[in-house]
Design brief:
The complex is a heterodimer of chains A (75) and B (131). Chain A is α+β, with helices and mostly antiparallel strands and 75 residues long. In chain A, 31% of the residues lie in helices and 35% in strands. Chain A has a 4-stranded mixed β-sheet with strand order 1-2-4-3, with helices on one face. The longest helix of chain A is centred in the middle third of the chain and has 12 residues. The two termini of chain A are 18 Å apart. Chain B has 131 residues and is α/β, with parallel strands linked by helices. Chain B has one domain: DsrEFH-like (Hypothetical Protein Ychn, Chain: A, 3-Layer(aba) Sandwich). Chain B is built from 5 helices and 5 strands; from the N terminus they run E-H-E-H-H-E-H-E-H-E. In chain B, strands 4-3-2-1-5 form a 5-stranded parallel β-sheet, with helices on both faces. In chain B, strand 1, helix 1 and strand 2 form a beta-alpha-beta unit. The radius of gyration of chain B is 14 Å and the shape is globular. The two termini of chain B are 26 Å apart. The chains are: A alpha+beta (75), B alpha/beta (131). At the A-B interface, helix 1 and helix 2 of A face helix 1 of B. Chain A: Pfam families: TusA. Chain A: This is TusA-related sulfurtransferase. Chain A: Belongs to the sulfur carrier protein TusA family.
């Protein structure tokens, strides 16, 4: 999937992946896609909940190369 | 209207600090309006010197390694992030008077207020937490 911005939150503990994702998302425009890489296992549920609460859409998430990858479309 | 989260922090250990600031930071990063009222030992969590060396509970000192291994941010770093994300910090005036503490003893950017200052924010909060 083609992302407009990619951020690396690997190795970071909660709540840092969320904080980093929020900051990156602030720089995007509506409809643009942010790709997030994380290793915090809690991020799988947390990023889904974050997207829902913040009015964004989690398009896809999967495990790849030992990391959790997320694609979130800005609302 | 955004979600409002009202937190009371009344304990001063390292674990307490993580409970308070992780929730506050996560909420602020999810576009919530967050206010924390720091009272009694909770004031340690925003005290310029104390918050750099908060104690672990007795017998739990070995968790220090776990914090390092999990790459958990240090408390001053987490507090800085909370402030940057717009978390409002209110120090309890009465406790400050009892403990003879001045506003200058605390980190920058805090408000000092009484119980009603907090209650006014908390009265229509969606989430209220006490730590």
């Amino acid at each position: 999937m083609q992302a407009d911005k990619v951020i690396d939150a690997k190795g970071l503990a909660c709540p840092m992946p969320i904080v980093k994702t929020k900051k990156a998302m602030d720089e995007l425009g509506s409809g643009q896609i942010l790709e997030v890489h994380a290793t915090d296992k809690g991020a799988k549920n947390d990023l889904a909940a974050w997207a829902k609460s913040s009015g964004h859409e989690l398009l896809e998430d999967r495990e790849e190369d030992g990391a959790l990858k997320f694609w979130i479309k800005k609302g | 209207m955004s979600t409002k989260v009202a937190i009371i922090a009344s304990n001063g250990g390292l674990f307490d600090a993580y409970k308070v600031f992780n929730i506050a930071t996560a909420a602020a990063a999810t576009d919530a309006e967050v206010s924390i009222f720091f009272t009694f030992e909770g004031l340690n969590l925003i005290h310029k010197q104390a918050y750099q060396q908060l104690p672990m509970p007795a017998g739990r000192e070995h968790f220090a390694e776990g914090f390092k291994a999990a790459n958990v941010p240090a408390i001053p770093e987490l507090v800085g992030m909370a402030v940057e994300l717009g978390v409002k910090i209110i120090a309890c005036q009465m406790t400050m008077d009892v403990m003879n503490l001045k506003k200058e003893d605390f980190i920058d950017g805090i408000d000092v207020g009484g119980a009603v200052t907090f209650l006014d924010f908390a009265k229509d909060a969606n989430v209220t937490l006490t730590f």
